[in-house]
Amino acid sequence: ERHIHILINNAGVMMCPRTLTEDGYELQFASNHLGHFLFTLKLLPKIISSGPAKIINLSSAAHHMCKSMNLDDINLEKSYSSQQSYFRSKLANILFSRELVKRLKDTEVSVYSVHPGAVNTELSRHLSSPLWKSYFFLFNFFTKTPEQGAQTTIYCAVDEKAASETGLYYADCKAETPSAMAQDDGLAKKLWDLSLDMVKFIPPWPFGKSS
């Protein structure tokens, strides 16, 4: 029988022009959060049965700059900022992890949120303005290589100390404190319920909508 002991959610897009997916959802929120949310829920039965197991959600320190989760305008139709859209999606990663921990409390599955650091990858390909190009030209002297950027994820996946922890936010291979919004349990629950509606998936309790 095959098992899933480690799931790493690391797909993403950053600060792109406002685009809607085929399902009609804003691209950054859909790619960076909804896709991971649905993928994880569909794999949960196998992950739980494989326990002990770990789910690692790649977030970013950029979540600290999110001004509002704005669940009433999830597609950002009233006003779109590519930066705030990205910051919001990274906040969603942590809120998803926070709520998932609660729903996995009676299992052998641990959940982690990770800030990999500023890594020199193609993720910044949409930053085309002269200001951003100048910023990243200078910033490239301080960025991590992909191998360096992977270290905190690897730490959460294999370190014995991390194995005894769940629900924390990590950067540079140690737990750190996320933003106040990222610690809002009520917001995490609302995001969970909205995400279920958006992906049109009904998982078994305790992973369904809040009662």
TrEMBL record:
Signal peptide: none annotated. Transmembrane segments: none annotated. The keyword Glycoprotein does not apply. GO terms for molecular function: oxidoreductase activity. It comes from the Eukaryota. Belongs to the short-chain dehydrogenases/reductases (SDR) family. This is Retinol dehydrogenase 11.
